[in-house]
Fold this sequence. Notes:
Glycosyltransferase RgtA/B/C/D-like domain-containing protein; 5 helices; single chain; elongated
Amino acid sequence: MRNKLIYFLLALVLGLGLFLRVYNINNLLGFYYDQGRDALAIWDLWHLGNIPFIGPTTGIAGIFRGPFYYYLIAPFYWLGKGNPVWPSVFLSLT
Length: 94
């Protein structure tokens, strides 16, 4: 019985945290450089067939993330028809 209570409380806390992260994200999300860069890279992937082999930049010059980041969020740009809120919701869940 005690384990069920612990799991219930854990699920409740995680559910509340998820709600607070995703609630009203459409109005809170700003379209900044990162979202624009990602949207352009994914647009190039879809429309021009340019497969990225280098991912997005980091704060350190010459250091890049892997291209898997673009491959990971591309389906969510597709589902949202280019709306940057969809990948942001996905990334807030991960």
